[in-house]
User: Which sequence fits this backbone?
């Protein structure tokens, strides 16, 4: 997400490194590169022009403060302008203010509405609500199957009824919600085109009939500037409350996500950046601006860690690490938790400065999703005794058997063992050097860190 844009903007700003003052000469080169980076990211030319003009106006003549240099000043100015462009201090997320709270999901065909409806319901369930999803797409029978498949695993009800009258389905779903004591009703509607007059009339009727508390327009980030045109067409009819950007993990440019809010004058409320049901985030302009500038997003990272945090298990892991008893079963459990947090590279990008570090550049392959699959398959190919006693896996015959069983090379097994031993040695040194508090901090402070930030 925004990978290409982040790389180009950082390169453009780096031009100012070493200068003691921002001048027209050194600024011109940097600003030109920033503008080109935004255009390459599929940001509208006029928006880029205005963006650059504002940066230039705020930058020229800025004297360097004791603790700052021109590079840092430009980063701050670009950050402020990006935040404004992406919605500024607009209201984020959804505040549940009534019971039941009705959310209408609309958008183009293939934009990811059904997947998002499932993700949104799971998002609310994790926060203590009792959601349900209404299968109101009468034109695509597979939508009902898709909802049932996604939500059965997380025990969220899907209401469906065999009828060609979508308003009848919505009426019956309201009675069902009352009966099942559901406080959030998410209505997944059929995909439609702005030029299809009949379908647009239908969504308008659905809005009038359901009287939703919130209307969300779902748009595919990979459609670029076309996403903004679609958003404008739908807004004329529905006057929706917010925008949802899907498939951001498949578009490293992200131009639509940067500009859509400023054009439509409605906030992006959620982003979807993966295929798993937990791959959904509230869109915070300030946090996204930090990610674009390579400054990480520690608040979102802490929130994701907190969702997977279990204090009892953390204490157990700490005890094992401090006694040098960390084994392959523990590693497997930690990998599973990490994967539940979402796309690994997205998670890593939330750590400030990590993507530009030498460590990340040299070990980029380690953070690939397939690398974790390899490690998992190797651990599953071990015997229960080997998992509990890592030292015995150094035997060549055992390594060959594990390599054959997991479909990897002997080199991969040796690399896995080397990485595991490195982790164990580091943790042992921390313990030996009376660094217990450092390890405790990692596991325990997550419970309070979010409030501090």
Assistant:
């Amino acid at each position: 997400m925004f990978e290409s844009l982040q790389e180009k903007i950082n390169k453009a700003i780096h031009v100012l490194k070493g200068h003691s003052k921002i001048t027209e000469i050194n600024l011109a080169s940097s600003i030109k590169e920033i503008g080109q980076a935004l255009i390459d990211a599929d940001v509208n030319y006029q928006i880029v022009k205005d963006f650059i003009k504002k940066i230039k106006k705020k930058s020229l003549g800025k004297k360097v403060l004791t603790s700052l240099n021109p590079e840092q000043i430009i980063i701050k100015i670009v950050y402020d302008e990006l935040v404004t462009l992406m919605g500024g201090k607009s209201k984020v997320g959804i505040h549940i203010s009534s019971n039941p709270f009705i959310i209408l999901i609309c958008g183009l065909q293939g934009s990811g509405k059904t997947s998002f409806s499932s993700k949104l319901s799971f998002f609310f369930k994790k926060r203590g609500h009792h959601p349900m999803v209404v299968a109101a797409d009468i034109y695509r029978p597979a939508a009902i199957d898709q909802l049932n498949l996604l939500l059965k695993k997380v025990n969220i009800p899907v209401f469906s009824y065999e009828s060609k009258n979508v308003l009848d389905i919505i009426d019956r779903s309201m009675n069902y919600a009352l009966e099942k004591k559901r406080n959030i009703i998410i209505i997944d509607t059929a995909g439609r085109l702005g030029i299809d007059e009949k379908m647009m009339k239908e969504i308008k009727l659905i809005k009038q009939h359901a009287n939703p508390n919130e209307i969300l327009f779902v748009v595919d980030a990979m459609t670029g500037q076309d996403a903004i045109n679609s958003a404008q067409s739908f807004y004329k009819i529905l006057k929706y409350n917010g925008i949802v950007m899907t498939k951001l993990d498949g578009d490293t440019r992200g131009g639509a996500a940067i500009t859509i809010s400023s054009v439509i004058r409605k906030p992006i409320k959620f982003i979807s950046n993966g295929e798993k049901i937990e791959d959904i985030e509230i869109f915070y302009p300030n946090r996204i601006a930090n990610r674009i500038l390579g400054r990480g997003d520690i608040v979102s990272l802490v929130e994701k860690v907190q969702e997977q945090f279990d204090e009892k298990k953390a204490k157990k892991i700490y005890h094992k690490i401090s006694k040098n008893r960390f084994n392959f079963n523990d590693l497997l459990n930690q990998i599973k938790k990490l994967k539940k947090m979402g796309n690994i590279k997205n998670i890593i990008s939330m750590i400030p400065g990590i993507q530009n570090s030498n460590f990340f550049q040299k070990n980029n392959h380690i953070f690939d999703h397939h690398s974790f699959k390899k490690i998992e398959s190797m651990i599953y190919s071990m015997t229960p005794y080997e998992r509990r006693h890592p030292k015995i896996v150094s035997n060549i015959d055992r390594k060959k058997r594990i390599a054959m069983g997991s479909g990897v090379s002997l080199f991969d097994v040796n690399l896995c063992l080397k990485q595991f031993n490195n982790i164990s040695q580091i943790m042992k040194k921390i313990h030996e050097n009376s660094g217990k508090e450092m390890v405790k901090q990692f596991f325990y402070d997550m419970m309070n860190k979010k409030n501090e930030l």
Observations:
- Residues 433-453 have pLDDT under 50 and may be disordered.
- The beta strands are 101-107, 131-136, 158-159, 184-189, 214-220, 242-246, 268-272, 280-282.
